[in-house]
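PROTOCOL LOG
Step 1. Enter all chains and additional molecules of the complex.
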Amino acid sequence: MIVSKFGGTSVADAAAITRVIDVIVSKQASQPVVVVSALGGATNVLLDLAHKAAGGELLVALQLVEQLRDRHLREVHALLDGSKEAEELALDISASFDELAHLAEAFRTLGYLTPRSLDTVAALGELLSSQIVAAAFRHRGFPAVWVDARDVMKTNDSFTRAEPDVDRIALAAQEVLLPLLKQGKIPVMGGFVGSAPGRVTTTLGRGGSDYSASLIGAAIEATAIEIWTDVDGMLTADPRVIPAAQLIERISFDEAAELAAFGAKVLHPATIAPAVQRGIPVFVFNSRKPDGKGTMIAFDAPRLPVRAIAGKRSTTLVKLRSSRMLLAPGFLRRVFEVFETHRTSVDVVTTSEVSVSVTLDDATNLGAILQDLAAFGDVAVERRSGIVAIVGAGIADGSRAIADALIALGPIPVYMASLSATGINFTLVIDDEQVVPAMQRLHAAFFEQPS
Ligand code: ADP
Ligand code: ASP
Ligand code: MG
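Step 2. Run joint prediction.
Step 3. Record the structure below.
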């Protein structure tokens, strides 16, 4: 059994969905479970229209509903050309968009959105795309069965970033997915979407379809988890920033997890953990080039000082100075409790005897955090920060990687630096607008030297 996940661009239209079918059909002997994202860009439009409606722009919101309706119906017709199933599916899809239009009207009346209502809206993208893909398989004569992700992906009720309930997912996967696989069927389900107790719709957070795939992979003890996307695999940097980025054929779980956490959007940061726990290799492939080598993520990979570079813009740097830190056991615990209380995770941390500095990805609760931190000492905030990270299992193996990185940055000011004790990640906090130049300099230094 394997899990194959296809991202938004890989299911963007009928031509892309046809490529998905070809890939999966060639793997039928491996008993694939297919996980799909919403049609490329659909999640952004859904969230945008909900915000527009709540902000009073109902007409614009309703126009967006109609654009999405047209797009989904167009792809249904292109894939299923005039079959009976096309008509039924088109009616169902249209009914979903009618409901969405009513929801938009309700948001307009209320004038606000709740995280729960946002999840109901966002989930529609994957719920529809997965039904379309399943129908397209059947139309081509393959025994696909649509699985409602809410019947498998059990979560808590932290709407917009729900946490999976791994035990309940394992049970549900055994009850729902395994019997289908045993009968030779191809289960097709949406990623990203889940359900809280009471079967209330939740989502795992943006980009969460990768996480869905690895959770399902762990639940059915798959032999491989495949992430099919729009690039050749994991590369030495984001190719949109560094066109010269090179394919990484093999990378360790630890390195891949670090890269994902520090900005390599190709994998959702939580994807690796379920795979590691079960020792399931994760592959990243390009759905436009199904014969490409792709990247294999597994326990072991050739040990290199620098495997890849990642960068992240728009992070927030919080600096706390306190004379009370001196010789005070438990001080750091109390400081970090503040971030826990406000459900905000911390990316980079450095400490000295009298100060703690941290970076945050998500500044939604910054106001409340700063208020609580003020009780410990003087707090300063730098909102326009960025991060660059060089990642490699052998980064501290007596190599010159750290020195070379600092030399490569040249005049770019560095405000904070952190090297993990396990020597896998050297992270630097810099100005937000320096992230791209810093990545270019680092990539040139480590990967573009003439040999
Ligand atoms: P999907 O819709 O398939 O989930 P995403 O847009 O979420 O695709 O992720 C793929 C994108 O990740 C690529 O187009 C690329 O720009 C970006 N990316 C960032 N860092 C890397 C990296 N190190 N290797 C490959 N892609 C990366
Ligand atoms: N469609 C969702 C998003 O755009 C989840 C995903 O694509 O992974 O965030
Ligand atoms: Mg993604």
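Step 4. Note key features.
The mean pLDDT is 95.
Residues 23 and 290 are 7 Å apart (CA to CA).
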